[in-house]
Please model this.
Amino acid sequence: QVQLQESGPGLVKPSQTLSLTCTVSGDSISSGTYYWNWIRQPAGKGLEWIGRIYMSGNTAYSPSLKSRITILFDTSKNQFSLELSSVTAADTATYYCAAAQRAAAAPRSYHYYMDVWGKGTTVTVSS
Amino acid sequence: EIVITQSPLSLPVTPGEPASFSCRSTQSLLHRNGYNYLDWYVQKPGQSPQLLIYLGSNRASGVPDRISGSGSGTDFTLKISRVEAEDVGVYYCMQALQTPPITFGQGTRLEIK
Model:
């Protein structure tokens, strides 16, 4: 079973770039089994999908964050990463990485559901 | 962007009693292939979200059969037939038909009376 672990600085200054890494174990990040996602959650609030990457390098980003996001692979380390530039206090949140696999019970759907999540890492944007 | 609205925001339930969660979308989540692209997640206290239901009505691996999902188009329901103490948490529905972005509802908090 694949497992995920987020890592990165807990504190980032306003206007700087937030960089997080998700380390994957139990499967190769380039196996093609999963889409690799980032989701965030401000304290006491709901979930916001940030974006995802596939083994082909194909990415999809939330339109509201697209101008500030980059999601990348590092196959040598079996990791994927999130970079969020020009951060403000509004970017303070717990950041989760999640693996989405294809719904094998519904192959015609081509649906990928997020069934593996990391424990999350809390990032505070403050000077 | 598809907007998802959940109700109620808070749901107090006595153990052993049923619970019902509503999820509505601003656009139909029914694809022409017959599938509804609506998933349900629960976030238990201090934990990461976990998948309960995918494509509207398919239980994820390990989810007990007292939890079920139904609905089509713009209206969906998650039901717990007999609530247990371990069910406490926030329940989110999520649409994956028109992406990006994937969008979540604001969540319904299940509390034990």
